[in-house]
Prior knowledge:
mainly alpha, WASH complex subunit 5, two-stranded antiparallel ribbon, WASH_strumpellin
Amino acid sequence: PSSTMVDFLAENNLCGQAILRIVSCGNAIIAELLRLSEFIPGVFRLKDKADQQKYGDIIFDFSYFKGPEACEGKLEAKPELLDLDEEFRENNIEILTRFYLAFQSVHKYIVDLSRYLDDLNEGIYIQQTLETVLLNEDGKQLLCEALYLYGVMLLVIDQKIEGEVRERMLVSYYRYSAARSSADSNLDDICKLLRSTGYSSQPGAKRPPNYPESYFSRVPISETFISMVIGRLRSDDIYNQVSAYPLPEHRSTALATQAAMLYVILYFDPSILHTQQAKMREIVDKYFPDNWVISIYMGITVNLAEAWEPYKAAKTALNYTLDLSNVKEQASRYAAVTERVHTQVQQFLKEGCLREELVLDNIPKLLNCLRDCNVAIRWLMLHTADTACDPNNKRLRQIKDQILADSRYNSRILFQLLLDTAQFEFILKEMFKQMLSEKQAKWENYKKEGSERMTELADVFSGVKPLTRVEKNENLQAWFREISKQIMSLNYDDSTAAGRKTVQLIQALEEVQEFHQLESNLQVCQFLADTRKFLHQMIRTINIKEEVLITMQIVGDLSYAWQLIDSFTSIMQESIRVSPSMVTKLRATFLKLASALDLPLLRINQANSPDLLSVSQYYSGELVSYVRKVLQIIPESMFTSLLKIIKLQTHDIIEVPTRLDKDKLRDYAQLGPRYEV
């Protein structure tokens, strides 16, 4: 690629900055939609009779646009309706405006993305084309994310703000705002994009035909762009995640983020889902051979068995995965893995196990254990989730029952594994941060110590230093001086070379001991052993790498449980009630959950966007209120205990009089109630 591709995300790279801004904006729009969906004024649902009678004549759906004059005429005929309308306007115009701006931003988003693609196409960005951007690692990620986020926006809107409600809000906004009079408003386009799809998130609701692909095609998007993005997502590991998960059985977890993006983006080209069997088989083999419940964004889960039901090619390809023998195999495998790794983690968490030397000598083993834990927790949490299974769907129920049976599923045990894993990760991360900060100082210190030992040993063989029964030996004297110099010349900044050379020095010290029969002298042997020990410590220390922390961050991702975690609330509260010290372990779990915020905030942060504050406040606010919900059990159980204490002290325990007969002492002691207090 041309030299302008050097750093796609650099501030002076206009092409990179433009798409980064779009993606940053996409993440912020989704947060705003999620936030607003909790503030829909109830009347717009027109759920109960009272609302329908009172507001039915002033709240309209899109049929209003067929004859606005007639609707307004009806109102003007009745003064009391006009008053109600005016009052309703005053109470709701603020929130309606906010919803309208959010809806408008979704439309503006896809217009901006299309304009960016046109600019790329027309050569506005010097030497950049769609092809060159897709060759760049950051460029490829951002283009895929841009389309995926648009799909997520549309799905979130339909899931959280029902079609009828959107229409009523848009009409009210249109009636109450200046949008009516301004000619340049793009209200028309926004209404076209967001008119009701007929979808309902209510359990048991039927899925509208051609949903969501017809909804996704309301604003035309470049077909070349869609097909190139799908091509990249099908063939590449666009986030280089496989390196964090070297084992083949973890591959679908390594590629899960990308798989979720592909799932959403395929709705922009439904012909693949319907008829392109070879492509669908390839997609299922790579991303869904052993999993079918996926998290698409901040814990929104989808069960492919249900989602792909209407598409022939997709459904056929997935049949292999959903075959009951495969379901049985996966579930049994996770039952075995869970049992094995849980014992391992509990072993590691025992007092004194996670010491520095032990950790440094066992990095691969510890990381493998973490991978196994996280992969198992993820699979079990997603595939046993209630949200993932429509109880009216017989096949889904059958699959879920099979999983519960074969994985010997027990939500308490799974939750315990999550707690222990989070705690284990937390301790390891803290240790690693500490070791990284001290790494260079320690390494230099070991180097100095080792080199000094060699100089001292050289002096021993010079015959100047009297050491019992050591004859003068100029060869050995020169050799040890040379080794001392070699140790001093090791360079911390070139860790690979230093590591290699250290290993050679250790070997040389082992050989000299055998070759010159130095074993007979204990003191010489001690010098050699000490030096080897320092050199080993240097190798250990140089192996403390930032990559380990990064791998732990990738592997420990819990964003898929952003909503599912709620199903464990009662277990958490129960365990706190039984043993209050649980709270410290829960802290690690909440911190693990907090890492889910990295996902939506990453691009917003890279783009230096002013949205950073509001988006991070929204998600962390959600997390804080969840933590409060769990922890409210503490004041509850505290007050229950206090009430018991008060009752015991005021009713059951008799005051001890100032003077007391010795034989009555026992009655007044009341050991039982006092012990209970």
